[in-house]
Amino acid sequence: MVTPIVTLTNGVEIPQVGLGVFLMTDEEETVWALKHALKVGYRHFDTAAVYGNEAVLGQTLKDAGIAREELFLTSKVWNDMQGYEKTKQAFLESLEKLQTDYLDLYLIHWHGPYVKDTWRAMEELYQAGKVKAIGVSNFSINHLEAMKEYATIMPMVNQVETHPYFPQDELRAYLEKENIRHESWGPLSQGKSDLLLHPLLAEIGEKYGKTPAQIVLRWHIDRGSIVIPKSVNPGRIHENFELFDFKLNDEDLAAIAKINLETRYGRDPENTGFEW
Ligand code: NAD
Fold first, then answer.
1. In which region does residue 190 sit, left (phi positive, over 0), alpha (psi from -120 to 50) or beta (all else)?
2. pTM for the full model?
3. Quick check: CB of 244 below 6 Å from ligand 1?
4. N or C end: fewer C-beta atoms under 10 angstroms in the chain?
5. Is the pLDDT of residue 110 over 90?
């Protein structure tokens, strides 16, 4: 099974569905989940320095013997490594752990006070060919507007919390206008809400012979977003990739738009509460 592709502004192609590996901390379970994902066909993996599993991911991918160019690897610079020198150091550490000499996508994990220097380092890594694309995560419209003042390259991706209870309509319209691709984290609302029990999703799912989770993931795809659901459960890993033999129609999309609660379950990018 091959996923649809989203093309970034610089022509880099990203598989629209990847595996998120947040909270995969048990080594044995992680290796098992990753091997299963590779077997199912996942080639895009979304990690971060702070997840503490880059090394396990790197080793498992190496052991699987899949050509590097067939993989799409994203990592992120954590808050404590922001700043010009530290970001470059963090990038090298991620490369080493992932056992690779380049990343496909490198993101600033959260906006913070060192963002200008962090971004300058990211631009240099990009210009040196060490990363195929650079972007941000958890950036608001304000953050992106401010970037116009100091960036020489605008981010190619913004990865933000998005699901039917928090569809990010305003931010998505802005990203589209600015040619920045939208990537959804927490696409199933991280198991923190009753989203997957919503009767509408069961009803639509019945029509297509799909589960509520598959309807939600297809909703992300049909809106053109990149999506990175996480699971360590083989059945769900498989389920979350069985998305390419159906499509939601306008009526389905309009009905799902109505269940919006404007509720996020993660931190607010404008008021993260992080201490820097
Ligand atoms: P998610 O919305 O993908 O939810 C994951 C949880 O949903 C799983 O633990 C499981 O309990 C459940 N689940 C998965 N598949 C299911 C299925 N088919 N049916 C029923 N339940 C299912 O949440 P997430 O892991 O937080 O987000 C996905 C990825 O996004 C992460 O792994 C990570 O890579 C990334 N992420 C990024 C940030 C950021 O700040 N940039 C923050 C959080 C997550």
1. left
2. 0.98
3. no
4. C
5. yes
Residue having the nearest C-alpha atom to atom 6 of ligand 1 = 190
Quick check: CB of 53 below 6 Å from ligand 1? no
Could you state, in order of their start, the residue ranges of all structural domains in the chain? 12-192+226-243
Considering only the top CATH level, what class is 12-192+226-243? alpha beta
Nearest CA to ligand 1 atom 5: 190
Which bin fits 220, alpha (ψ -120 to 50), beta or left (φ > 0)? alpha
Task: Kindly report, residue by residue over 19-41, the tens digit of the pLDDT.
Answer: 999 999 999 999 999 999 999 99
The CA distance from 261 to 169, in Å, is: 12
Which residue has the least CA distance to atom 26 on ligand 1?
186
> Among this protein's residues, is 150 annotated catalytic?
no
**Residue 94 in contact with ligand 1 by CB distance below 6 A:** no
- pLDDT tens for 125-161 read 999 999 999 999 999 999 999 999 999 999 999 999 9
The side-by-side arrangement of strands in the sheet containing 19-20 is 19-20, 44-46, 72-77, 103-108, 131-137, 157-161, 181-185, 226-227
